[in-house]
Amino acid sequence: MNTEVKQQRRNLSKERRDEIISAFRRCVSRSGLESCSMRHIAAEAGVTQPLLSHHFGSRAKLVEALVDHVIQEYENVRKVKLASVVEMGDAESLIEFLFGGDFNEISATDKGLFLELQAAAVRDESTQAVLSSVYHQFESDITDILSKLHPNSSSSKCEAVAHALVCMAEGFDMFQAANLRQMTEIDIRDCARAMLLSLVK
Question: What one-character-per-residue DSSP string does 66-90 give?
Answer without folding.
Answer: HHHHHHHHHHHHHHHHHHHHHHH-S
